[in-house]
């Protein structure tokens, strides 16, 4: 049976992640509170954000910036600010 969580991004019960994808406290918070659906949305945004900002994930500052954006997006109803990207209208 699939694990369900109350997804803080989608504000509903949804299928949870199969395992903790990120180490540490933030990873546990994501595992406990974010659905597969919201995580998949974040991964698309993350790719655009990394490309837009030309982030190097070997660089600690870039990883911290990406993690801050992830927390804002997943937990604070934030949108990822990607220049030149217009989200599709609902």
Automatic annotation (TrEMBL):
Superkingdom of the source?
Answer: Bacteria
Presence of the UniProt keyword Iron in the record? yes
Give GO terms for biological process.
cellular response to oxidative stress
GO cellular component term of the entry, any: cytosol
The record's GO molecular-function terms, alphabetically, read:
iron ion binding
Which of UniProt's keywords are assigned here? Iron
Database matches in PANTHER family: FE(2+)-TRAFFICKING PROTEIN-RELATED
> What family does this chain come from, according to its entry?
Belongs to the Fe(2+)-trafficking protein family.
| Function per UniProt | Could be a mediator in iron transactions between iron acquisition and iron-requiring processes, such as synthesis and/or repair of Fe-S clusters in biosynthetic enzymes. Necessary to maintain high levels of aconitase under oxidative stress.
Q: Which protein, by its recorded name, is this?
A: Probable Fe(2+)-trafficking protein
Organism equals Agarivorans albus MKT 106
């Amino acid at each position: 049976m699939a694990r369900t969580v109350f997804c803080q991004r989608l504000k509903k019960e949804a299928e949870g992640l199969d395992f903790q994808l990120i180490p540490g406290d933030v990873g546990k918070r994501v595992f406990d509170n974010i659905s597969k659906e919201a995580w998949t949305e974040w991964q698309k945004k993350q790719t655009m954000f990394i490309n837009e900002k030309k982030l190097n994930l070997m660089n600690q500052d870039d990883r911290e910036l990406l993690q801050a954006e992830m927390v804002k997006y997943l937990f604070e109803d934030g949108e990822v600010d990607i220049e030149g990207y217009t989200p599709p209208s609902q």
